[in-house]
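Hey, I'm writing a tutorial for new members on how sequence and structure tokens pair up, and I'd like a real worked example in the thread rather than a made-up one. If someone can provide the structure for the chain below, I'll link this post from the tutorial.
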Amino acid sequence: MTEKTKKGLSLKAKIITAFVLLVVVLLSITGITYYLRYFGESVTGNEKYLYIKTGSSFDDVYKTIRDKEIVKDSVVFHWAAVNMVYPSVVKPGKYKLTEGMSNRHFINMLKSGNQEPVKLSFRGYRLKEDFAKYISTQLETDSASLVQLLDSTSLISKYGFNRDNIYGMFIPNSYELYWNTSAQEFFERMHEEYQKFWTKKRLAKAEEMSLKPLEVISLAAIVDAEALHDKEMPTIAGLYMNRYKRGIKLQADPTVIYANKDFSIRRVLNKQLTKDSPYNTYLYKGLPPGPIMMPSIAAIDAVLNYAHHNYIYMCAKEDFSGYHNFAVTEAEHRANARRFQQALNQRNIKR
């Protein structure tokens, strides 16, 4: 082999080697770029959650992600989302964001609809409008839609309720729901929980008292409004059961406050006692047509397991401890009431 031939082969080898090295470098750059676009850190710590509303398009989602700077590079996210065929499978929900999450992980979470449940807790609401407003801060549904359902006679009658007692269907507890739960779905879930709550044991106790479940809840609402301390609930429940069985007006101050729709009242006056309302138990015998508030489970069970005694009167203790003085006779009650009224006067509590 001549020297000239050797030099030619050497040059060709160098060119091939250089070409191979170039290809390797380009492939490495492509691989690194691919890796970074899919597997590199992408999600920022600017937002804790991404909320995707029902009916949102990919453009809507992308706009939110871009405007709120949820990812470091929105253009790269868009490229990855398109390549992972996400635009055609957008699912609504509340998605938890973890800083440093890769585009691949983030997009897979959105594609699968793997959203974080909302832990919903409620109790003590007096008005359904306030309750609906609270629910709208926790779920996608708006308060108007929920109120509309609660006021829909044709709907609630199918479940055995009316507009006065429908509030009794909502058992205060902690529940897990998805953020995009609709008003109708929320209503149906709460009805399921209501049915679960009224076990055979609870139903049997209500029947022994000659009360329907919703009547138990109406009484429990009064007990809950009267009792500052849970351990006093069975005693208060027993007092109202004594009055109810004997046909004596319940004369519960919380029902007067509810009838007047003035929840700032601390001292019920004679002018408020005359408010003509079926909820005013100073004017009408028996239980009000529906609960005056959303009673706690403790109050409901206190009614179902009420204390047996002879009390038919009670008055808040003059030490403002939240406890009550109970009485069997009217004379005892008047003495208790005088002490409490004097204490109110001393504190200049006029209303």
